[in-house]
Specification:
Elements: E1 9-13, H1 17-20, E2 21-31, H2 35-42, E3 46-47, E4 52-56, E5 59-63, E6 66-67, E7 84-87, H3 90-100, E8 105-115, E9 118-128, H4 131-155
Antiparallel strand pairs: 1-8, 2-7, 2-9, 3-6, 4-5, 5-7, 8-9
């Protein structure tokens, strides 16, 4: 009786994204990789910081995603910062294009994870936060932390 694992294993995460952007919508996308890149990602050598996605001629590419060269890859290694094609349906790309044509919206990868042995990207439509928005979010988080601390002390 073999059970299929539906647990997604996160391999890389863009932690700064939720701090710098308001996330409007997110979706799962496949990514076109070569074998040594997959091995490197599985080893945890991927970095999503400062990466973004762009739609060019009806195809969507992720840029500035750094995947370190695989140690045992020798001649098969590719450029760590090369553009990588994302795999989405035409309708999904059209919907994302509609978002990105609006002022202030961009596409950013939130995380890389494994799903049934394949590397997937969690792609988000995001709108940049202003500095005062970031301060408000930090104040809100601090207030919630203080309230939780007070409640915990009161329940003792």
């Amino acid at each position: 009786m073999a059970q299929s694992k539906s647990v997604n294993k996160t391999l890389a995460e863009n932690r700064k994204a939720r701090h710098d952007y308001f996330i409007e919508e997110s979706m799962e996308a496949g990514i076109e990789l070569v074998g040594t890149e997959v091995k490197s990602i599985r080893a945890g050598k991927a970095n999503l910081k400062d990466s973004y996605a762009e739609i060019i001629n009806g195809e969507i590419f992720v840029r500035n995603m750094h995947i370190s060269p695989y140690e045992k890859g020798n001649i098969f290694n590719k450029d760590p910062l090369r553009d990588r094609k994302l795999l989405l349906h035409k309708e999904e790309i059209g919907r994302l294009l509609g978002y990105t044509t609006q002022q202030g919206y961009t596409l950013i990868p939130l995380s890389l994870y494994l799903k049934q042995g394949r590397v997937k990207v969690n792609l988000a439509v995001a709108k940049g936060k202003k500095n005062y928005d970031k301060r408000d979010a930090m104040l809100e988080k601090a207030a919630k932390r203080d309230i939780d601390r007070q409640m915990k002390e009161r329940l003792r």
